[in-house]
Amino acid sequence: MNYGKYPIILFLLALLFGCVDSTDDQDIPEENSDRKEMLKFWAEEMIIPSYAAFDQDLQNMVISADQFVNSPTESNLQTLRNTWVQAYVSWQHVELFEVGPAEKYTLRNFYNIYPTNVSGIESNIASSTLNLNLPSTYDQQGFPALDYLINGVAEEDSKILEFYTDSDKGEDRRAYLNSLVTRMEVLLNQVITDWNGPAKEEFISKTGLDIGSSTASMVNAYVLYYERHVRSGKFGIPSGATLASSGTPNPEKIEAFYKQDISLQLAKTAHQAFTDFFNGNANGKQGRSLKSYLVAIGAKDPNTGKLLSEYINEQLTVISNLLNGLSENLYQQIITDNDAMIQVYQEMQKAVRLLKVDMTSAMSITITYSDNDGD
């Protein structure tokens, strides 16, 4: 037996384990620190300020709704419509933040499930036991229900006013409209209060990548939002591009069906908010983001060697350009040239793959939601 070999073997083993320990001690804390700075920027510069801005627009809608309920005139109706549009557009900047308090209160479910359920709304108006907390009432409240109540109950404004001044049912109808707006105000106040309380520090402190960590939760919410609520909700289902639609267009399922000329504006605002979040663009400020994180870890497309963040941004730009070519009325777009809608859906699907597969794999994040929407 040659004992002279042992010092060499021991030296190599010590060197090997020394290298592993050094990597664990240096890289992981640095990555945690980077994620903490990213989470801090998300919370303090993107999420909380976006909710504050949305709250201002929602408060304007609350005030105009109160004025209309107390005095249902044509002027007050138009003011309510204008503030509803502004608040609906503003909502597109916060809908993607379905984490923490918004997830806790399931804000999206109470704010923006469409198409709205007209028969359910009419039943609610006539009911003496209204309970808007029930999941069965998701599609009977929020922005889509208000869309119907201020734009869709009749074709002419004079008839809409008669709907609310009717001697028999007018008071109940105004009361229901008021209850919807009040509920939206209460829910948003709960979300904002939580974010301005312990929720912010809790969010920032969960710096890991495990299930339940803030980065993993935000990435899951972010990708889910784009996949289901932008790609499918705004384009796939109305155009009939999803497998569940079997190729049959459903133009009546666009967002803001009773105010069709803002449907593209809502979609473009949502896509831009999504893009800004990826790049860490917040009201003129540039901060830590998914883009900067992917760059920091050297994530690249395996086929081209291009930075994954560049690849994702190029795809988001392709989608932006396609959106710019659509009619502001997506209902009419589907009727006249549905292929353009389907093309947007297809390009959004490419973005979903980059985000859901390539980005999450590079970041070692597990997708925890199920792909059960049939598309």
UniProtKB/TrEMBL annotation:
A GO CC term attached to the entry: cell envelope
Pfam families linked: Peptidase_M75
Keyword tags: Signal
Cellular localisation: Cell envelope
InterPro entries reported for this sequence: Imelysin-like, Imelysin-like_IPPA, Imelysin_sf
PROSITE patterns: PROKAR_LIPOPROTEIN
Signal peptide extent: 1-22
Name used for this protein in its record: Imelysin
Source organism per UniProt: Algoriphagus halophilus
